[in-house]
Design a protein that fits this description.
By secondary structure, the protein is α+β, with helices and mostly antiparallel strands. The chain has one domain. The chain is built from nine helices and seven strands. The strands form two sheets. The protein has a four-stranded antiparallel β-sheet. Helix 1 crosses helix 3, helix 3 packs across helix 4 and helix 3 packs across helix 6.
Amino acid sequence: MSPRPPHRPAAASCRASRVAALALLAALTAACGSDVPDPRAAGPDVAESAPDGAVYRMSGEWITAAEVDALAEALRIVSPSHTLPHRRRVALTRVLLPRARARELGGARLRNVRESLDDAVRRVEAGEMPAPDRTTGTWQTFGVVGWLALRETPVGEWTATFEDPGRLCRAKVLSRDGHAAPGQEVFECVVLCEPYVDASFTLDPTRMGGRLEVVADDRETWRDLLPTRWLYELEGTDR
């Protein structure tokens, strides 16, 4: 009988992280490519109409635990020392809650913005318009959603469309240094973005607006993830 091959937990963990990142990227780009429903069309009965796994409803858009934890897993890849509650908090306050509010404000413009962005990419490639200045940096420069798109795009090609709160973007990867630590890998890119909300949109909860509802069965666990200021401004409570 042949001896069993040595166990390689690090390699297995790397493959698992890559699979998780790919799954999240697929979900994010699929969301960018579909029509965003009008949040105002949802009925008033929050508890009965919530989809499976929903933990929040922000400005009429459901946010599930799976969405939060998929982004938290991406953040674990780049910031492995941070705790799960911290990574969930970052995913919510930097991406998911502001994105839901942005979609409420400008969701009707998304289709036209997607078309405009794709046309801008075509024109840059054809030499019909100048490319933007190059941007160089790590995931912190491009954001976790942009980093996921960059990570899976070969040098010389454009990413799929990815969505930051209030804007759609695509990036052409010009170079990457291949650093062994994902959080320290440096990318050089040309980035094109098209906003679908006004320039006054902000991630500051005191000025962002919107309405937050915590709908999870374990409500306090998910409320406790959010900073007091976010709860006060968006849920209307000081805890």
